[in-house]
Amino acid sequence: MLLLLLLLFCLLLVAACFGCSMSRLRRPSSRRLLLAALGLLSVLAFWSSSEGAASFAGASWATRKEGIRTLGRLPRAAGQAGNALPELYIYDHCPFCVRARIIFGMKNIKHNLVWMANDDVDTPTALVGKKISPILQLPGESAMFESLDIVRKIDMDPAWGPPLLKPASAREDLDAVDKRTIEAVRLLLRPRVIRAYLPEFAHKDGRTAYLRNHPIADPVGGEVPEKAAWLAMGEEKWKSWYDAHFENSPALLAELNSVLPDFEGLIHSEDSVSPGGASYDDIVFFAKMRTASLIKGLKPGPRLQAYMERMSDLSQIPLYSGMAV
Ligand SMILES: N[C@@H](CCC(=O)N[C@@H](CS)C(=O)NCC(=O)O)C(=O)O
């Protein structure tokens, strides 16, 4: 558009010069003036083309604008209109965030994932008033949190296609194995998430924030300190307790792996943990198992392994197996 305007201006200028006085143009000073004006217009025309600007200024605004347009051209599910995509603000290791991601993956809804640094308080607070993840920001709507509310919103709103999920079945057998494994999983995972190369822990401040916010059991006495006592201990001590649990991995792994065979009989099929197809049971169960896949040496039985791989495909969320710590 700018180029057209410049060409028009150029034509008008030439016409005006001709119309005004051919004789005066013959004077060297007038000719120099006209040549200078044409030169200036050529530079402006070159600058207005994105190629010229980019080659001159490197990663310029023109290049960045193109990046944004490229995102807008991604294919969309039914109901997605305009250029804005839903945004999910997450930590990668967070099982609640995985819950929210599953439904987007299963419904193949294009969205942008925003990995927040673990010490970033401003971003979530600006969105929902506190430090929390996951957070969903739909274009033109208020941001929301609570993983299962996000799942419900995306599953039930006809704008995102027909609902996929059956209700939770409140299975006590799944809760029971969860209770038997939760402590070992926690002690194995916490020292690992800050060792793995995860986006929320890319900077030291992110790792320190995680240590500060997640008190862990005394490796000798087994008691988890009160929050105030934990804060008073300081970073060196936090680290030493995390390290002690990391060193204790073989014993913790043996304990966890001894329970995993009991999961085999609980898994209905590789497509759903409970009979009747995908349900909120999968949202909760797969989210935990995906985070647990960061534990190197975890030995799921064949049914659990097949389930994890299939759910990873359906939800489009990679397991950590290839980068387990
Ligand atoms: N009930 C919430 C729990 C979410 C939650 O606890 N998220 C953790 C991350 S895994 C969190 O944001 N904790 C606060 C923090 O990290 O400071 C949900 O289901 O979404």
From TrEMBL:
Domain GST N-terminal: 88-155
Source organism, top-level taxon: Eukaryota
Keyword Transmembrane helix: yes
Signal peptide positions on this chain: 1-16
UniProt xrefs under InterPro entries: Glutaredoxin2_C, Glutathione-S-Trfase_C_sf, Glutathione_S-Trfase_N, Thioredoxin-like_sf
UniProt-recorded name of the protein: GST N-terminal domain-containing protein
Keywords associated with the record: Membrane, Signal, Transmembrane, Transmembrane helix
Pfam families: Glutaredoxin2_C, GST_N_3
Chain ranges of the Glutaredoxin 2 C-terminal domain: 235-324
Residue stretches spanning the membrane: 33-59
Keyword Metal-binding attributed: no
